[in-house]
Amino acid sequence: MRSVQGCCSLRKSLFTISTSTSWCAWRRIILQQCVRLPVRLPAGQQRQLQMRAFGTGLASGGRMGSNNSDKSDRHLVAVREERFQELVAAEVAYLATVPVKPVSMRQIVTWRNARDMVPTIQKEVPKRFALRIRLIETLDGWQAIPELVKMHDLLTGWYRDLVLLDYKNPDLASFVRSFKSIRDEGRHTIALSASGIYKLRNKLGKFSQQETNFLDEWLDGFLLSRIGTNALIDQFIAIASKEDGGLGRPTGITDPRCNASNICRFAAQVSSYMCYQRFGTEPKYIVQDYQAGRVGPQEKSPCYFSLIPSYLRYIMCELLKNSFRATLLTEIDISSRPVHIRVCNDVHHVAILVSDEAGGIPFEVGDQIWSYMYGTAAKIGTVNSFSTEGDELDNPESLTGYGVGLPCARLYARYLGGKLSLTSYPSYGTQAHLILPRLGSPP
Ligand SMILES: Nc1ncnc2c1ncn2[C@@H]1O[C@H](COP(=O)(O)OP(=O)(O)OP(=O)(O)O)[C@@H](O)[C@H]1O
Ligand SMILES: [Mg+2]
């Protein structure tokens, strides 16, 4: 391997030149338009450029890097940081136009070996980051909103980290390290994007229902893409061996014998504790199991099914935080109005009903409860500035936050192939219906 003198010794600035791989038109355009390489190629030789940084093979139909002979004549070249950034920006712009191939939850959970996931990760994850970067850039005035700028910077950094990984000879430990840091840095994504969009809308001064709908749909798309990306990343970390820094779980993020009622109980305990912290008192709740073919609650037959426990926990926490909070705010004797959580299942589905007697939601509110622009913060009329130091709104476990609980819970339900809906009985209470398909056949 011949190293060519460059301007910067940063590892992240390295890319490789190969004489033998297939020529990708889009890369040539990027290189011709954005980069004047600080290297002179030998005259007469038909050189082709393959950036290791760009070695995702995303648009090359798999040909790039697949040629064995390119190992023999690969040269390392260094480019300046600004040029590298230009390349990243150009590749992001291109990739955001490439259709994203949906990777279903069922497909994700069938992976049992982290190495087998590498080609899909290489192909699909950077593409999804690129899509989200471009989504932010489509918003008029995003540069004036610190939360959106931060989100944009984070996504660009993750994109760069991912494309710099060596996909030909994957070192699983470094993959796991990168993914863990992406997940860690991205833990405030919902708060960042929701408060960013909220501020963007308020900057408009007067805004129409159409604009609100547009921003709701924008957030739906943005966050759904995040759920899909995280599912891939989490499955990778979960099935990677402990030696590689993973969790070494043979079934990955899925629990093939997930006890749905225990998860509901756990979510109820967590939400109840939050109420205690906020109001100094806890609501009453009852969790019951029901099974198809048997009438009445089944005390000794809990509902087991194959599911991703963290997703169900998230959805249930959001529903229960709302019901508990509403119950405690009504200030009528809470012991006579427990929140009921009924977990019902048949061979194909699990259906969970959460019902409270907290007075319901006024009819005129209607579908607004599914808007990211409705909810406690919006009603108060303020959203605090996002800071990673963490105020109450930044804390994903706070009882009430940005007004994203219901729309986000519905996104998770949809991602799992299920449904979440709410029925309000004004002055009586609210019923939330969650239906999820089993990921596998019943155990
Ligand atoms: N069970 C319920 N009873 C009464 N009102 C409810 C109930 N569930 C939801 N709501 C109303 O719907 C609004 C939106 O709920 P959502 O969970 O999306 O946001 P939030 O609870 O205000 O904030 P976040 O969930 O982000 O912490 C709530 O603010 C509340 O007014
Ligand atoms: Mg809520």
UniProtKB/TrEMBL annotation:
<dbReference type="InterPro" id="IPR039028">
    <property type="entry name" value="BCKD/PDK"/>
</dbReference>
<keyword id="KW-0418">Kinase</keyword>
<keyword id="KW-0496">Mitochondrion</keyword>
<dbReference type="Pfam" id="PF10436">
    <property type="entry name" value="BCDHK_Adom3"/>
</dbReference>
<protein>
    <recommendedName>
        <fullName>Protein-serine/threonine kinase</fullName>
        <ecNumber>2.7.11.-</ecNumber>
    </recommendedName>
</protein>
<keyword id="KW-0547">Nucleotide-binding</keyword>
<dbReference type="Pfam" id="PF02518">
    <property type="entry name" value="HATPase_c"/>
</dbReference>
<keyword id="KW-0808">Transferase</keyword>
<dbReference type="InterPro" id="IPR018955">
    <property type="entry name" value="BCDHK/PDK_N"/>
</dbReference>
<comment type="similarity">
    <text>Belongs to the PDK/BCKDK protein kinase family.</text>
</comment>
<feature type="domain" description="Histidine kinase/HSP90-like ATPase">
    <location>
        <begin position="307"/>
        <end position="440"/>
    </location>
</feature>
<dbReference type="GO" id="GO:0004740">
    <property type="term" value="F:pyruvate dehydrogenase (acetyl-transferring) kinase activity"/>
</dbReference>
<dbReference type="InterPro" id="IPR036890">
    <property type="entry name" value="HATPase_C_sf"/>
</dbReference>
<dbReference type="InterPro" id="IPR003594">
    <property type="entry name" value="HATPase_dom"/>
</dbReference>
<keyword id="KW-0067">ATP-binding</keyword>
<dbReference type="InterPro" id="IPR036784">
    <property type="entry name" value="AK/P_DHK_N_sf"/>
</dbReference>
<dbReference type="GO" id="GO:0005524">
    <property type="term" value="F:ATP binding"/>
</dbReference>
<dbReference type="GO" id="GO:0010906">
    <property type="term" value="P:regulation of glucose metabolic process"/>
</dbReference>
<dbReference type="GO" id="GO:0005759">
    <property type="term" value="C:mitochondrial matrix"/>
</dbReference>
